Amino acid sequence: MAETEFIIALTEHRYFGSVFVPYLIEKEEQFYTVKRHIKPRDLENNSDYSFKPYERELVGIIEKYSDENLTKKFSRAGSVSEFFSSLKPGYFEKNVTPYIEKQMFKVASILMLCPVRLLKKETKYANLYDEDEIFVQPVFANPVFYFERTEKETHYRLKVYLDKNEITLKNSKLQIICNEPCLMIHRSRLIVFEEFNAKKMVPFFEKEKVTVPHSIEEKYYSGFVLNTIRDNDVFARGFKILEEDLKKRAVLSLEKNLKQEPCFVLHFYYGDEKFLPNSNRKVAVNLHKRNDSYVFEKVKRNFVWENTIQNHLKEAGLKENNGSFLPKGYELFEHSDLVYFLVNWINRHKHKLEANNIHFTQSNLEKKYFTGDQQLEMKAKTSGDWFDVYATVRFGEFQIPFIKLKKYILNDIREFELPNGEIAVLPDEWFARYKGLVPFSKGQGEKLQFEKHHFMLLKNGLQQFDKSVMERFQKMEATATKGLSLPANLKAKLRAYQEEGFQWMFHLYKNGFGGCLADDMGLGKTLQTLSLLLKLKRNRKKEIEVVDPTVNNGQLDLFGTSGEEENNQPASLIVLPTSLVHNWDNEIRKFTPALKAYKHIGIQRKKAVDLGKITEFYDIVLTTYGTVRNDIEILSKTEFFYIILDESQFIKNSTSKTYKAVMKLRSQHRLVLTGTPIENSLSDLWSQMNFLNKGVLGNLAFFRNSFITPIEKHKSQEQQEKLQLLIRPFILRRKKEEVAKDLPPLVEQVRVCEMSKEQSKLYEHEKSVIRNTILENIEKEGMEKSGLVILQGLTKLRQLANHPSLMEKENEESSGKFDEIFRMLENLVAENHKVLIFSSFVKHLELLQEKIEKQKWKYSLLTGQTSKREEVIQSFQNDPDNRIFLISLKAGGVGLNLTEADYVFIIDPWWNPAAENQAINRAHRIGQDKHVFVYRFITEDSIEEKIQQLQEHKSSLADKFINSNNPFQKISKEEIVALFK
Are residues 431 and 571 in the same domain? Predict the structure, then answer.
């Protein structure tokens, strides 16, 4: 098989002269035969030759000046022939030829270094011979000019050296392949010039020297001679060429680019001569005429030094971008903030740059920015219940109290004017570190004061602490008190997590903090709280028991004054939903009988009683949220030991009468208990945290701007983390799966029910009427004033989705959902299961009750009208034949322990999953030993299904903070309209 070789041929193009072309050739006996002209497509589709990397590169470069690519690049002609025939005079020489010569030089440069042969090929012939080889010289040719100035004239000669050997120009057979840079053939050698125009060589093909008369020498020296000295090696007689080692300086300048954007520009100075890094000028030459003599000062750039400087900038984090330098991350900044970013960068790196002989300046800016030393010194000390923070900022020679920058930090003002008029740019880090800290401070002279419950903010935000501060931080950050034992007379065995909760609350007590115990339903928040109160119980005065049987179920009415008084610790006030009073009373009697409880509830309560006296003799006062609202004038006059709010979501609305009332209560310590501290919005959390530790989250307006809006609307991870930092010491949250490994799994399903035919017709008719009514009301009154109309419309559709008779009692149409519920209920009763059925409509429960009675099944019913709750609950729990418990969601969402049930029906789910989860937790709680199955019944193509879909797209705020459920958020007008489509 003949040997195949890749070569480059020098051949003639029909339009633009000699060009390089790649070929594969085969060796014959006396010559070579051209096998193929290689194009890029052949590199992948040639099975009989393996192309080397440099061969592939050569093919790619040469393809750039193929006829087709030149046509695409330099014209809109439809064909190659049209392109060449339509060329205007001079266009080719001015635009196309320089482009081709640039590619030819790249090819020649590669041929100088690789073993690919260059052969001359006649266009007409396909055969090549060894004699056609052109030997590519491996070094660049060096042109040297020799100038001599005499009294009459100036003349110069040109010599070309190739590796110190002179190439004779005059009368030599030379072929110029490219003009600039020059490529020429001399005696079968390709000679390559790095930077030289062949036209300067042409005169010397016929003569030894070129002469310039004295009359035009000044113009000649300032033009041709100066440029020649700049670009080539020159020897001169009759005038001077000075090449001095001038002082080098690198200057980084803050200025604006052509787009008027701030940036860094690097300048290299050699004496007074200035170069930009990306400038093509390698040499600068200046001409000075002194008397009748000419002196040229030649400055050569030191690229090794310049590269070292640029490497220093890269190591410092700058990257080159279109001739300017910018720090990494600059693209994240708006135009107006970029200058601040750059000034802060200089402030941090200036010393390091100067150590590397890189100086800094500012040019053509509207302001003079301060770029000296900038330091912030902060130190905290303890002062009673406060932390005092002393902070000073140093801008060079100026010392400024940090408190003077407080308004700048709060209002995102970056520029601070110094006494000398320079503008100091406050660093981003200060805003990031202190903007979340400063709003919680109070100014006292030149120091900032922080309340003790902001200790986590201080610990995270400050770097310098007094020893006493560190000790206090460590004490406050602990989650338990070492060596703390449970109260001896506690009548219960606490689980490990319950004991941890008890110790956590005691730790808060010791540090004077309020706390939120936010364990899942059923984990024993009541028991943990009673354990704390029992631990903190003090001896009381002995009572003279004069009992009035008509008041408060025989509670103490008159008190004596005899007996020893150990201390003045008053009773604790526990505020509850009405339905939980009985539960708390039972748990106190069962687990902590040593604690004496007084119930300040009901219409029979004695408002005129002296609560001050009561708190001296009792340990606990139980009351309800409604009672607090009504009796706030009485209750607020008494100081309690603890105020404890159970189901504290009752105060989630800070504009409500309930919240305003409990905020008037006075106590030494505070606790709240809830499984769902966040139900609708982070504002729920603010209300409860503000009750516990007033001001811990700032005022509501600040909290809304700093946390609610950034987190709920913009999903700000940074603000989420800051909020978590603020609340972490004061919230303890344990989920059932974390602490109760023996709890059976919970299985949840959605059962979609189809409407009956007549029900569907009625639903669609009513939906159309309701939609029109709502839209008219929105157009007329606006969204804010249409809430009642929207709610009424939604309620009607919900009722129709459940059963038509919920809206019209006389309506006897059937309901698909109702039939499915009852079908499943029949199966469960037959299989001896117990089931809880929750509904937010009492009428819905009554429909089921009516049908259940017809079947003669035993059942229990609990609504807001039920008077004997305990009897009803015990009947379901203890009677094996009582398998059905009908419960209204409002009446049975809290305070029930119904572990006998292993099925839960939510028969009309709505938009608040927190309420549903509370209902589910009646059965799925500690003590349950069976699998719990939950079914949510949704009517297909109804408002329920749309709400369910909307709810799935809502984010759960509580999952991010306290892992509780997040109910349906506020609906927009567009979502309202979509619900009624």
Answer: no
Q: Cα separation of 57 and 110, whole Å?
A: 9
164: region left, alpha or beta (phi > 0 left; psi from -120 to 50 alpha): left
Task: From 238, 257, 274, give the residue that closes a domain.
Answer: 238
> What's the pLDDT band for 901 if we cut at 50, 70, 90?
confident
Tell me, rounded to whole angstroms, the distance of Cα 447 from its chain centroid: 33
781-826 pLDDT, tens digit per residue, is 877 777 788 888 888 999 999 999 888 766 667 888 898 898 788 8
- Please report where in the chains the tokens 């009852």 appear, as a residue: 822
Same-domain pairing of 128 and 180: no
Domain count, the chain: 6
Cα gap 402→373, rounded to integer Å: 16
Instruction: Please indicate, yes or no, whether residues 817 and 906 belong to a single structural domain of this protein.
Output: yes
Say yes or no: 230 and 254 in one domain: no
Q: Helix axis angle, 496-511 relative to 525-535, nearest 10°? A: 50
As to burial, measured by CB atoms within 10 angstroms (0-12 exposed, 13-18 middle, 19+ buried), residue 384 is exposed
Q: How confident is the model at residue 383 (pLDDT cuts 50, 70, 90)?
A: low
Q: Kindly state whether residue 293 falls inside one of the protein's structural domains.
A: no
- Can you give the residue range of the structural domain that contains 928? 746-759+813-979
Q: Which of 849, 919, 911 is nearest to 891 (CA)?
A: 919
| Residues 648 and 701 placed together within one structural domain of the fold | yes
DSSP H helices, 438-555, are 455-461, 467-477, 496-511, 525-535
Instruction: Using alpha carbons, list the distances in angstroms from residue 790 to 242, 786, 954.
Output: 92, 6, 20
**755 and 837 together in one domain:** yes
Boundary of a domain, candidates 136, 170, 203 = 136
Sign of CA dihedral 754, 759, 761, 767: negative
One domain, residues 570 and 521? yes
Q: Which comes out higher in pLDDT, residue 640 or 790? A: 640
Q: Which of 358, 263, 363 is nearest to 320 (CA)?
A: 263
Nearest to 73 by CA among 47, 44, 102: 102
pLDDT at 960: 43
**Which region, left, alpha or beta, applies to residue 437 given φ > 0 means left and ψ of -120 to 50 means alpha?**
alpha
- pLDDT, tens digit, 9 for 90 and up, residues 589-628: 999 999 999 999 887 677 656 777 888 889 999 999 999 9
Is residue 520 located within the same domain as residue 536? yes
Q: pTM higher than 0.85 for the full model? A: no
